[in-house]
Design brief:
It is a single chain. Helices cover 45% and strands 19% of the residues. The protein contains twelve helices and twelve strands. Strands 2-1-3-4-5-11 form a six-stranded parallel beta sheet, sandwiched between helices. The chain has a six-stranded mixed beta sheet with strand order 7-6-8-9-10-12, sandwiched between helices. The protein is elongated, with a radius of gyration of 21 Å. The protein is an alpha/beta fold. Helix 1 runs parallel beside helix 5, helix 3 packs parallel to helix 11 and helix 8 packs across helix 9. The longest helix has 19 residues. The chain binds alpha-D-fucopyranose. The site of alpha-D-fucopyranose has 10 residues, from loops.
Length: 338
Protein backbone atom coordinates (compact mmCIF):
# COMPACT_ATOMS: atom_id res chain seq x y z
CA UNK A 1 0.00 0.00 0.00
CA UNK A 2 2.69 2.42 1.07
CA UNK A 3 4.81 2.35 -2.08
CA UNK A 4 2.02 2.60 -4.65
CA UNK A 5 0.46 5.47 -2.67
CA UNK A 6 3.77 7.30 -2.68
CA UNK A 7 4.16 6.58 -6.37
CA UNK A 8 0.74 8.03 -7.12
CA UNK A 9 1.66 11.12 -5.14
CA UNK A 10 4.91 11.42 -7.04
CA UNK A 11 2.98 11.32 -10.30
CA UNK A 12 0.56 13.87 -8.90
CA UNK A 13 3.52 15.99 -7.84
CA UNK A 14 4.91 15.85 -11.33
CA UNK A 15 1.52 16.74 -12.76
CA UNK A 16 1.38 13.51 -14.71
CA UNK A 17 -1.92 12.16 -13.43
CA UNK A 18 -4.45 14.30 -15.23
CA UNK A 19 -4.54 17.38 -17.33
CA UNK A 20 -7.33 18.90 -15.25
CA UNK A 21 -5.20 18.61 -12.11
CA UNK A 22 -3.19 21.54 -13.44
CA UNK A 23 -4.20 24.52 -11.32
CA UNK A 24 -4.86 27.98 -12.67
CA UNK A 25 -2.00 30.46 -12.74
CA UNK A 26 -1.73 32.63 -9.65
CA UNK A 27 -3.20 36.08 -9.75
CA UNK A 28 0.32 37.38 -9.08
CA UNK A 29 1.43 36.06 -12.45
CA UNK A 30 -1.42 37.54 -14.45
CA UNK A 31 -2.38 40.77 -12.74
CA UNK A 32 -0.62 44.08 -13.34
CA UNK A 33 -1.14 45.33 -9.78
CA UNK A 34 1.33 43.91 -7.24
CA UNK A 35 -0.33 40.93 -5.60
CA UNK A 36 -0.81 40.88 -1.85
CA UNK A 37 1.54 38.36 -0.28
CA UNK A 38 -0.21 35.20 0.85
CA UNK A 39 1.58 32.20 2.29
CA UNK A 40 0.62 28.78 3.58
CA UNK A 41 1.97 27.08 6.71
CA UNK A 42 1.39 23.32 6.51
CA UNK A 43 2.13 21.00 9.44
CA UNK A 44 1.97 17.22 9.83
CA UNK A 45 0.56 17.07 13.39
CA UNK A 46 -1.60 20.13 14.06
CA UNK A 47 -2.74 18.63 17.38
CA UNK A 48 0.82 18.75 18.79
CA UNK A 49 1.49 21.93 20.81
CA UNK A 50 4.89 22.26 19.08
CA UNK A 51 3.14 23.00 15.78
CA UNK A 52 0.55 25.26 17.39
CA UNK A 53 3.41 27.36 18.75
CA UNK A 54 5.07 27.39 15.32
CA UNK A 55 1.79 28.73 13.95
CA UNK A 56 1.78 31.34 16.71
CA UNK A 57 5.17 32.56 15.46
CA UNK A 58 3.90 32.48 11.86
CA UNK A 59 0.93 34.62 12.95
CA UNK A 60 3.32 37.13 14.50
CA UNK A 61 5.27 37.37 11.21
CA UNK A 62 2.02 37.85 9.27
CA UNK A 63 1.10 40.66 11.64
CA UNK A 64 4.51 42.30 11.29
CA UNK A 65 4.70 42.14 7.50
CA UNK A 66 0.98 42.41 6.76
CA UNK A 67 0.79 39.26 4.63
CA UNK A 68 -2.00 36.74 4.64
CA UNK A 69 -1.36 33.39 6.32
CA UNK A 70 -3.20 30.13 5.69
CA UNK A 71 -2.59 27.45 8.34
CA UNK A 72 -3.37 23.90 7.30
CA UNK A 73 -2.97 20.47 8.94
CA UNK A 74 -1.57 17.96 6.44
CA UNK A 75 -1.62 14.55 8.08
CA UNK A 76 -0.94 12.58 4.88
CA UNK A 77 0.30 12.99 1.33
CA UNK A 78 -3.12 13.49 -0.19
CA UNK A 79 -3.86 16.31 2.22
CA UNK A 80 -0.55 17.94 1.24
CA UNK A 81 -1.39 17.85 -2.48
CA UNK A 82 -4.93 19.17 -1.87
CA UNK A 83 -3.51 21.93 0.33
CA UNK A 84 -1.03 22.99 -2.35
CA UNK A 85 -3.77 23.14 -4.97
CA UNK A 86 -6.03 25.17 -2.70
CA UNK A 87 -3.18 27.59 -1.97
CA UNK A 88 -2.62 28.04 -5.71
CA UNK A 89 -6.33 28.57 -6.33
CA UNK A 90 -6.40 31.12 -3.52
CA UNK A 91 -3.55 33.15 -5.00
CA UNK A 92 -0.76 32.22 -2.54
CA UNK A 93 2.84 32.56 -3.70
CA UNK A 94 4.54 30.11 -1.35
CA UNK A 95 4.35 27.84 1.67
CA UNK A 96 6.30 26.50 4.62
CA UNK A 97 5.83 22.80 5.36
CA UNK A 98 6.61 20.17 7.99
CA UNK A 99 5.76 17.16 5.85
CA UNK A 100 3.90 14.10 7.17
CA UNK A 101 6.49 11.89 5.43
CA UNK A 102 9.94 13.06 4.37
CA UNK A 103 9.86 10.66 1.40
CA UNK A 104 7.13 12.81 -0.13
CA UNK A 105 9.79 15.47 -0.62
CA UNK A 106 10.36 14.93 -4.36
CA UNK A 107 6.60 14.92 -5.08
CA UNK A 108 5.97 18.05 -3.00
CA UNK A 109 8.93 19.89 -4.51
CA UNK A 110 7.78 18.95 -8.02
CA UNK A 111 4.24 20.14 -7.30
CA UNK A 112 5.51 23.44 -5.88
CA UNK A 113 7.71 23.99 -8.92
CA UNK A 114 4.93 23.17 -11.35
CA UNK A 115 2.52 25.56 -9.65
CA UNK A 116 5.11 28.29 -9.18
CA UNK A 117 4.97 28.28 -5.37
CA UNK A 118 8.07 29.04 -3.31
CA UNK A 119 8.78 26.36 -0.75
CA UNK A 120 10.58 26.27 2.62
CA UNK A 121 10.76 23.12 4.74
CA UNK A 122 10.73 23.19 8.52
CA UNK A 123 11.66 20.53 11.14
CA UNK A 124 11.56 17.40 8.96
CA UNK A 125 13.92 17.66 6.00
CA UNK A 126 12.88 16.22 2.64
CA UNK A 127 14.76 13.17 1.41
CA UNK A 128 15.24 12.05 -2.20
CA UNK A 129 14.43 8.62 -3.57
CA UNK A 130 17.99 7.47 -2.74
CA UNK A 131 17.55 8.49 0.91
CA UNK A 132 19.83 11.55 0.80
CA UNK A 133 18.65 14.96 2.03
CA UNK A 134 17.23 17.33 -0.60
CA UNK A 135 19.76 20.05 0.10
CA UNK A 136 18.47 22.34 -2.66
CA UNK A 137 15.21 23.06 -0.79
CA UNK A 138 15.58 25.71 1.97
CA UNK A 139 15.35 24.07 5.38
CA UNK A 140 15.14 25.33 8.96
CA UNK A 141 15.27 22.88 11.85
CA UNK A 142 16.96 21.80 15.06
CA UNK A 143 20.63 21.01 15.40
CA UNK A 144 19.33 17.53 16.06
CA UNK A 145 22.55 15.74 17.11
CA UNK A 146 23.61 18.58 19.42
CA UNK A 147 20.23 18.88 21.08
CA UNK A 148 20.13 15.10 21.48
CA UNK A 149 23.61 15.19 23.02
CA UNK A 150 22.48 17.90 25.46
CA UNK A 151 19.52 15.68 26.43
CA UNK A 152 21.87 12.73 27.08
CA UNK A 153 24.28 14.85 29.12
CA UNK A 154 21.43 16.28 31.20
CA UNK A 155 20.13 12.77 31.87
CA UNK A 156 23.56 11.62 32.98
CA UNK A 157 24.03 14.64 35.26
CA UNK A 158 20.69 14.01 36.97
CA UNK A 159 21.48 10.28 37.26
CA UNK A 160 24.72 11.12 39.05
CA UNK A 161 22.94 13.59 41.31
CA UNK A 162 20.56 10.86 42.44
CA UNK A 163 23.48 8.46 43.00
CA UNK A 164 21.60 5.45 41.63
CA UNK A 165 23.64 2.24 41.41
CA UNK A 166 24.38 1.72 37.72
CA UNK A 167 23.62 -2.01 37.99
CA UNK A 168 20.00 -1.14 38.91
CA UNK A 169 19.61 1.56 36.28
CA UNK A 170 18.92 1.43 32.55
CA UNK A 171 18.09 3.76 29.68
CA UNK A 172 14.81 3.55 27.78
CA UNK A 173 15.47 5.25 24.43
CA UNK A 174 12.19 5.73 22.58
CA UNK A 175 13.23 5.82 18.92
CA UNK A 176 11.67 6.68 15.58
CA UNK A 177 14.60 5.98 13.29
CA UNK A 178 12.79 6.31 9.97
CA UNK A 179 12.75 10.09 10.51
CA UNK A 180 16.27 11.55 10.21
CA UNK A 181 15.84 14.41 12.69
CA UNK A 182 14.47 11.91 15.23
CA UNK A 183 17.29 9.41 14.70
CA UNK A 184 19.95 12.12 14.92
CA UNK A 185 18.50 13.31 18.23
CA UNK A 186 18.30 9.86 19.85
CA UNK A 187 21.69 8.79 18.45
CA UNK A 188 23.22 12.01 19.83
CA UNK A 189 21.62 11.42 23.21
CA UNK A 190 22.80 7.79 23.42
CA UNK A 191 26.32 8.77 22.31
CA UNK A 192 26.50 11.43 25.04
CA UNK A 193 25.38 8.95 27.71
CA UNK A 194 27.99 6.45 26.56
CA UNK A 195 30.78 8.97 26.44
CA UNK A 196 29.85 10.17 29.94
CA UNK A 197 30.42 6.58 31.07
CA UNK A 198 26.97 4.98 31.06
CA UNK A 199 27.37 1.31 30.01
CA UNK A 200 26.26 0.67 26.43
CA UNK A 201 24.72 -2.68 27.38
CA UNK A 202 22.25 -0.95 29.71
CA UNK A 203 20.88 1.33 27.00
CA UNK A 204 17.78 -0.16 25.34
CA UNK A 205 15.85 1.11 22.35
CA UNK A 206 12.04 1.11 22.26
CA UNK A 207 10.99 1.83 18.66
CA UNK A 208 7.70 3.74 18.51
CA UNK A 209 5.31 2.88 15.67
CA UNK A 210 3.52 6.21 15.82
CA UNK A 211 4.88 9.55 17.02
CA UNK A 212 2.24 10.21 19.66
CA UNK A 213 1.79 9.37 23.35
CA UNK A 214 0.09 6.00 22.69
CA UNK A 215 2.95 5.10 20.30
CA UNK A 216 5.66 5.70 22.88
CA UNK A 217 3.55 4.28 25.73
CA UNK A 218 3.25 0.98 23.85
CA UNK A 219 6.92 0.91 22.81
CA UNK A 220 8.14 1.58 26.36
CA UNK A 221 5.64 -0.90 27.82
CA UNK A 222 7.22 -3.72 25.80
CA UNK A 223 10.70 -2.69 26.94
CA UNK A 224 9.71 -2.55 30.61
CA UNK A 225 8.31 -6.07 30.36
CA UNK A 226 11.58 -7.28 28.84
CA UNK A 227 13.68 -5.85 31.71
CA UNK A 228 11.84 -6.55 34.96
CA UNK A 229 14.99 -6.24 37.09
CA UNK A 230 15.60 -2.55 36.40
CA UNK A 231 14.80 -0.32 39.40
CA UNK A 232 15.56 3.12 37.95
CA UNK A 233 14.94 4.32 34.40
CA UNK A 234 16.43 7.16 32.40
CA UNK A 235 14.08 8.02 29.54
CA UNK A 236 14.98 9.77 26.30
CA UNK A 237 13.18 10.24 22.99
CA UNK A 238 12.98 12.54 19.98
CA UNK A 239 10.45 14.89 21.55
CA UNK A 240 8.35 15.52 24.65
CA UNK A 241 5.57 13.26 23.41
CA UNK A 242 7.95 10.30 23.08
CA UNK A 243 9.19 10.76 26.65
CA UNK A 244 5.74 11.48 28.12
CA UNK A 245 4.36 8.20 26.77
CA UNK A 246 7.29 6.26 28.25
CA UNK A 247 6.94 8.01 31.62
CA UNK A 248 3.23 7.07 31.65
CA UNK A 249 4.28 3.47 30.93
CA UNK A 250 6.63 3.45 33.95
CA UNK A 251 3.80 4.77 36.12
CA UNK A 252 1.58 1.99 34.81
CA UNK A 253 4.20 -0.53 35.94
CA UNK A 254 4.29 0.94 39.43
CA UNK A 255 7.52 2.97 39.24
CA UNK A 256 7.46 5.92 41.63
CA UNK A 257 8.29 9.32 40.12
CA UNK A 258 11.60 9.46 42.02
CA UNK A 259 12.83 6.34 40.21
CA UNK A 260 12.42 7.78 36.73
CA UNK A 261 14.23 10.63 34.98
CA UNK A 262 12.67 11.56 31.65
CA UNK A 263 13.99 14.44 29.57
CA UNK A 264 12.16 15.43 26.41
CA UNK A 265 12.86 17.73 23.47
CA UNK A 266 10.65 20.64 22.23
CA UNK A 267 9.70 22.12 25.59
CA UNK A 268 6.26 22.94 24.25
CA UNK A 269 4.43 19.68 24.83
CA UNK A 270 5.23 19.23 28.52
CA UNK A 271 3.91 22.45 30.02
CA UNK A 272 0.92 20.83 31.73
CA UNK A 273 3.21 18.04 32.92
CA UNK A 274 5.72 20.41 34.52
CA UNK A 275 2.86 22.37 36.09
CA UNK A 276 1.49 19.33 37.93
CA UNK A 277 1.45 19.91 41.67
CA UNK A 278 3.38 16.68 42.33
CA UNK A 279 6.56 15.99 40.32
CA UNK A 280 6.36 13.08 37.87
CA UNK A 281 9.18 11.11 36.25
CA UNK A 282 9.22 13.75 33.49
CA UNK A 283 12.14 15.80 34.74
CA UNK A 284 12.54 18.37 31.99
CA UNK A 285 12.97 19.11 28.31
CA UNK A 286 15.39 20.62 25.83
CA UNK A 287 13.43 23.70 24.80
CA UNK A 288 13.73 24.83 21.22
CA UNK A 289 11.83 27.93 20.21
CA UNK A 290 8.83 26.83 18.16
CA UNK A 291 7.47 30.41 17.81
CA UNK A 292 10.86 31.55 16.47
CA UNK A 293 10.92 28.72 13.95
CA UNK A 294 7.43 29.72 12.77
CA UNK A 295 8.35 33.40 12.67
CA UNK A 296 11.71 32.94 10.96
CA UNK A 297 10.54 30.57 8.22
CA UNK A 298 7.58 32.87 7.49
CA UNK A 299 9.84 35.91 7.41
CA UNK A 300 12.29 34.17 5.05
CA UNK A 301 9.46 33.21 2.74
CA UNK A 302 7.95 36.70 2.84
CA UNK A 303 11.24 38.33 1.81
CA UNK A 304 11.76 35.71 -0.89
CA UNK A 305 8.34 36.46 -2.40
CA UNK A 306 8.40 40.21 -1.88
CA UNK A 307 12.03 41.12 -2.59
CA UNK A 308 13.37 38.02 -4.32
CA UNK A 309 15.89 37.40 -1.50
CA UNK A 310 16.49 33.66 -1.55
CA UNK A 311 16.65 32.14 1.94
CA UNK A 312 19.63 30.23 3.35
CA UNK A 313 19.46 26.55 2.41
CA UNK A 314 20.19 25.24 5.91
CA UNK A 315 19.38 27.08 9.17
CA UNK A 316 19.69 25.37 12.56
CA UNK A 317 18.25 26.22 15.97
CA UNK A 318 19.64 25.39 19.42
CA UNK A 319 18.03 24.34 22.69
CA UNK A 320 18.21 24.89 26.43
CA UNK A 321 17.19 22.69 29.35
CA UNK A 322 13.98 23.53 31.16
CA UNK A 323 12.91 21.81 34.39
CA UNK A 324 10.24 22.40 37.00
CA UNK A 325 12.58 24.98 38.55
CA UNK A 326 12.98 27.33 35.60
CA UNK A 327 10.34 26.52 32.97
CA UNK A 328 7.83 29.26 33.85
CA UNK A 329 10.45 31.99 33.58
CA UNK A 330 12.08 30.63 30.42
CA UNK A 331 8.79 29.95 28.61
CA UNK A 332 7.51 33.40 29.51
CA UNK A 333 10.65 34.96 28.08
CA UNK A 334 10.20 32.90 24.91
CA UNK A 335 6.62 34.14 24.56
CA UNK A 336 5.33 30.59 24.88
CA UNK A 337 3.32 31.31 28.02
CA UNK A 338 1.81 34.64 29.02
C1 LIG B 1 9.66 16.82 14.44
C2 LIG B 1 8.87 16.34 15.64
C3 LIG B 1 8.24 17.52 16.38
C4 LIG B 1 9.30 18.57 16.65
C5 LIG B 1 9.94 18.99 15.39
C6 LIG B 1 11.00 20.03 15.61
O1 LIG B 1 8.79 17.25 13.44
O2 LIG B 1 7.85 15.46 15.23
O3 LIG B 1 7.68 17.10 17.59
O4 LIG B 1 10.27 18.03 17.51
O5 LIG B 1 10.55 17.87 14.75
Amino acid sequence: MKIPALFVLLLAGLGLLSACSKPAATSAATSAAPAAVKIGYLVKQPEEPWFQYEWKGADAAAKKYGHELVKLGVQDGEKVMTAIDSLVAGGAQGFVICTPDVRLGPAIAARAKLTGLKLITVDDRFVSADGSFMTDIPYLGMSASKIGAAQGSALYAEFQKRAWPVAETAVCAVTFEELDTARERTDGSIAALKSAGFPADRIFKAPQKTTDVPGSFDAAGILLTQHPGVKHWLVLGMNDTAVLGAVRATEGRGFAAENVIGIGINGTDCIDELRKAKPTGFHGSMLVSAPSEGFNTSEMLYHWIKDGTAPALDTRTTGILITRENFEAVLRKEGIIE
